[in-house]
TrEMBL record:
Its EC number is 4.3.1.19. InterPro entries: ACT-like_dom_sf, ACT_dom, ACT_ThrD-II-like, Ser/Thr_Dehydratase, Thr_deHydtase_catblc, TrpB-like_PALP, TrpB-like_PALP_sf. Belongs to the serine/threonine dehydratase family. Gene3D superfamilies: 3.30.70.260, 3.40.50.1100. Keywords: Lyase, Pyridoxal phosphate. GO terms for molecular function: threonine deaminase activity. It is an enzyme of class 4 (lyase). It comes from Sphingomonas floccifaciens. Residues 337-414 form the ACT domain. It catalyses: L-serine = pyruvate + NH4(+). Pfam families: ACT (PF01842), PALP (PF00291). The keyword Lyase applies. This is Threonine ammonia-lyase. The keyword Aminoacyl-tRNA synthetase does not apply.
């Protein structure tokens, strides 16, 4: 990664001039999203934090920028024949939306197991969706096959100079709005966004640090640049950056221009999604919250710096978002599940409920277990889901129960 001055621009696939040209090309056709100071996130992290709200794009993600920049550079013959891509996420929607707007036919190949809502969203933007293969790799291979058979133009989600230049316009706008930024913290999946943003940062007359963020479960670019061999796989909240194989062009740019890459765990990603909703009143998908997750996980690294983070997308399933918010409430002590051992006799439930009443704790749900338990036959396991004000309030409830000689355990989250 970048330890020496940046190489000459002609040695890299994208130049600062390319990003500037992309900005002129797409101007007025994508939302110029705001970059706003967050007083609360700044106090929470110890840095001066500015947030770029790319989740306010029409398709709720920055991917529109690169997709549009690519479409606008196709000749008339290529536009008439149409484009094809393999994607089950934001790239598909960005390409479909702007293709439809420009009259360019768009075909998207998705894995067969893609959630119906994603298929419908992409089709709603006018694209033809083909479901093929059980994995993204299989869908990708089929898309490349159709590219040749139908003489379509393949639009790669990240490993294309036109895509990289389009994504770099995010940094142009951030630095226009907040010239004093000294650090950019950017999610990395395939590397298109950070490659474009790093190209802009390195072209400035002063030093701006560029730090990449990957999910711990998918450290693909981290592995490639550090020579490590950590496994890539698993169910991550940050599915938008769950890329097993980074791009060749993007890896070249990241190695030359990016200062460091950090890895964040699922718990920090969940916390970041929840905080952005609570504090900024904005919905971020897991990948979109990765920058904030890094600030939370590495406070000392970023303390005192003037930092720009990008909410690169806001497309998250509502049920998943609800789960994230409830899990965050549980970790903060505002929701809890207690497992209490009782004697199976009349009035036992009343007596324990009396303590909840005394401590002003709201009971949400009760569950008895008499049969499938390792307690004696006259024993009873009671699970109580309850709502408290905060961790201190929960601790007072636990202390009151134990003072009355109840055996009680808190059911913890992973």
């Amino acid at each position: 990664m970048a330890t020496n001055p940046a190489p000459a621009e002609h040695l890299l696939p994208v130049s600062y001039a390319d990003v500037q040209a992309a900005a002129m090309r797409i101007k007025g056709a994508v939302v110029r999203t705001p970059t706003l100071h967050s007083k609360t996130l700044s106090e929470l992290t110890g840095a001066r934090v500015f947030v770029k709200f790319e989740n306010l794009q029409f398709t709720a993600a920055y991917k529109e920028r690169g997709a549009l920049n690519t479409l606008l550079q196709l000749d008339e013959a290529a536009r008439a024949k149409g484009v094809i891509a393999a994607s089950a996420g934001n790239h598909a929607q960005g390409l479909a939306y702007h293709g439809n707007r420009l009259g360019v036919p768009v075909t998207i190949v998705m894995p067969r197991l893609t959630p119906t809502v994603k298929v419908m969203q992409t089709e709603s933007h006018g694209a033809t969706v083909i479901l093929e293969g059980e994995t993204f790799d299989a869908a990708y291979e089929y898309a490349r096959q159709l590219e040749g058979e139908r003489d379509l133009t393949f639009v790669h989600p990240f490993d294309d100079p036109r895509i990289i230049a389009g994504q770099g316009t995010v940094a142009l706008e951030m630095l226009e709005d907040v010239p004093e930024l000294d650090t950019l913290v950017v999610p990395i999946g395939g590397g298109g966004l950070i490659s474009g943003m790093a190209t802009v940062a390195r072209a400035q007359s002063r030093e701006i640090q560029v730090i990449g963020v990957q999910a711990e479960l998918y450290p693909s670019m981290y592995n490639r640049l550090r020579g490590t061999h950590m496994a890539c796989g698993g169910d991550t909240l940050a599915e938008g950056i769950a890329v097993k194989q980074p791009g060749g062009l993007t890896a070249q740019v990241v190695e030359a221009l990016v200062d460091d890459i950090v890895l964040v765990g699922e718990r920090r990603l969940e916390e970041a999604v929840s905080l952005l909703l609570q504090i900024e009143k904005t919905v971020a998908e897991g990948a979109g919250a990765a920058g904030l997750a890094a600030l939370l996980a590495f406070r000392e690294k970023f303390r005192g710096r003037t930092i720009g983070i990008v909410i690169c997308g806001g497309n998250i399933d509502t049920r998943l978002l609800a789960n994230v918010l409830l899990r965050d409430l549980a970790r903060s002590g505002r929701l809890a599940r207690l497992r209490i051992r009782l004697q199976d006799r009349p009035g036992a439930l009343f007596q324990v409920a009396r303590i909840f009443d005394q401590e002003r704790v709201n009971i949400l749900e009760l569950s008895h277990q008499r049969i499938f338990t390792n307690l004696p036959a006259k024993g009873l396991s009671l699970d109580v889901e309850c709502e408290t004000r905060d961790r201190a309030h929960l601790d007072r409830l636990l202390a009151a129960l134990r003072q009355d000689n109840y055996e009680v355990n808190l059911v913890e989250l992973a």
